[in-house]
Amino acid sequence: MVNGSRGVVPIDLVAIAVLCGLVTLFSVQNIGPAAIRAPLGFAFVILAPGYALAAVLFPYERRQRNGWVIPADQGDKRSRITFVERIVISAGLSLAIVPLTGLLLGYTQWGFNPTALTAAIAILTVILSIAATVRRWAVPTEKRFTFPVLSAPTQLAAFIGEPRTAREETLAVVVILGLVISTAGIGFAATVPDNGERYTEFYIQGQDPESGEFEPDAYPEEWGAAESVDMVVGLTNQEGETVSYTIVVQQQQLSPTSDGYQVSDRTELDRIDVTAGAGETWREQLELTPTESSDDARIAYLLYVGEPPEEPTADTAYRTVHLSASGVPNEAET
Prior knowledge:
Immunoglobulin-like; elongated; alpha+beta; 2 domains; 7 helices; 37% helix; five-stranded antiparallel β-sheet
């Protein structure tokens, strides 16, 4: 790939996009050795989003020759920084972009979590990289920034050993501000309640006939009328606050329709009031005695936040689980 030609994607921005893809893949699939994931993740967080934004802001090149900056024409000084300045600015911008992205993500339906944050940063970085590519194409070839593949290590080493200029001192201030914003963002995320997705896990477990233990897949295949059915009902409160629930257990008789089945009659078998704190899990073993066999009815567990209506149905419940004759919870027509 040759840099400096209109219509050719710059190699540095391609590398940034590839980095985003690899880190996102490693994060979503949870694959790859730590020796590879750690340095890629560090570069992704500290450099990638800021570098892409800096590429949008500074499409021009401020070339150096033998360590000295070549003066630019008076009318051509805009958007010109050296390669080393670009790297420093990229780090400062990344330190501001990443925590702010995390804060905004916490107010969305995906919530604040590592996978969602990685995907959000990757998408933002790729969008900025595309915009930066378009910006560079609009710059004359001789004035366009090109990544110094061979001289990059030399320029970085020279920057470390040289005295700081006023311009470099300003860049240091930018990086410090980025650190301050980053720290403030992390502190805010740690102290403000989670505003992401809130939900309640609701489930039932059957008793294994051999071990006698209650397990997620040990549901009874069938039951007869007036025959005891032992199940464990459980919930985990992920609502971020204490919640009062009501669990209504019904025997539901089903009638066939052209689209499947519908509930023709309901008989309440049990009702339980539960109060669970944020993050708390509640479980209880229920012994039910249906008046109909599994051939004619199913057992429905309906979860409500607060008090249920006078006639509880699956349509009005917050969460529902049905136990059918197949021994598997299902969602038949209600």
